[in-house]
């Protein structure tokens, strides 16, 4: 399968800065947040301030995550991830910046990746900063809440699950083994800032690029949209592959409204 306009765009540029979003991973079984108009499909994700200040919010988050991680943690890269890894292997990708937290680009063999919003396969202590694998914390959650392991629920974005009618007051969330503080997934929640060094590193790579390719993102979150604004200010061409509206539609040189894996199939 070929996509002549997109293939021509990629062929004409040697240093692509690639920005990916949830649409890149939906074919791996990970739901996205927004519809084709860029609106929320569901209740907004947990807020950082609520997670840190409210024990009930933490119990609800981790109970849903206990169920959701079982499938999220087993997700495999799809053809969109493999196509972008091939683009890098061919020396055409300056950097890939992903808004996703699933690490599927890395699983597909992509080497130069910046995880803009962190990574869900790690858990971070908000007191001492200690990081542990999410798989280990999954075991600890299961040991503390064995009765919850019999539950199942529909998948929600980013390892969440739709446990809407459960009473969460009995759910036990283990503290940090080292210092006893609050544990949080090592991702950027809504209301939390992307670390400055991550933004600076991404901006440095964008400055070296001769074009930008957006794959599977509506860009409704400013943390990703800012890089499109920066590319436009540099007057480098910008192409996007996305089903539906994006926040940057008026800045695009080319827009392809197809599923990511179909639009990029020519790279495989």
TrEMBL record:
NAD(+) binds at residues 99-102, 216-218, 242-244, 260. SUPFAM superfamilies: DHS-like NAD/FAD-binding domain. Belongs to the sirtuin family. Class II subfamily. It comes from the Bacteria. The active site is at 117 (proton acceptor). NAD-dependent protein deacetylase which modulates the activities of several enzymes which are inactive in their acetylated form. GO terms for molecular function: histone deacetylase activity, NAD-dependent; NAD+ binding; zinc ion binding. The lineage of its organism: Bacteria, Pseudomonadati, Pseudomonadota, Alphaproteobacteria, Hyphomicrobiales. It comes from Bradyrhizobium frederickii. This is NAD-dependent protein deacetylase. Its cofactor is Zn(2+). Pfam families: SIR2 (PF02146). Its EC number is 2.3.1.286. Binds 1 zinc ion per subunit. Residues 1-268 form the Deacetylase sirtuin-type domain. GO terms for cellular component: cytoplasm. CDD domains: SIRT4. Its main location: cytoplasm.
């Amino acid at each position: 399968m070929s996509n002549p306009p997109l293939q021509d765009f990629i062929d004409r540029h040697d240093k692509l800065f690639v920005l990916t979003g949830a649409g890149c991973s939906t074919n791996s079984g990970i739901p996205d947040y927004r519809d084709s108009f860029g609106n929320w499909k569901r209740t907004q994700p947990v807020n950082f301030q609520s997670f840190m200040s409210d024990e009930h919010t933490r119990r609800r988050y981790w109970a849903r995550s206990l169920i959701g991680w079982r499938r999220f943690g087993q997700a495999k890269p799809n053809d969109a991830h493999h196509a972008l890894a091939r683009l890098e292997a061919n020396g055409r990708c300056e950097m890939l910046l992903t808004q996703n937290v699933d690490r599927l680009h890395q699983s597909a063999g992509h080497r130069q990746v910046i995880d803009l919003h962190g990574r869900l396969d790690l858990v971070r202590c908000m007191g001492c900063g200690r990081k542990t694998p999410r798989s280990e914390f999954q075991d600890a959650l299961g040991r503390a809440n064995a009765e919850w392991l019999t539950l199942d629920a529909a998948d929600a974005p980013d390892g969440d699950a739709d446990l809407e009618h459960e009473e969460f007051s009995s759910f036990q969330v283990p503290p940090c083994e080292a210092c006893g503080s609050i544990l949080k997934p090592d991702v950027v929640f809504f209301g939390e800032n992307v670390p400055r060094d991550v933004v600076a590193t991404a901006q440095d790579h964008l400055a070296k690029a001769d074009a930008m390719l957006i794959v599977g993102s509506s860009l409704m979150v400013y943390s990703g949209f800012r890089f499109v604004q920066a590319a436009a200010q540099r007057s480098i061409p910008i192409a996007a592959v996305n089903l539906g509206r994006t926040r940057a539609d008026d800045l695009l040189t080319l827009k392809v409204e197809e599923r990511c894996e179909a639009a990029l199939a020519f790279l495989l």
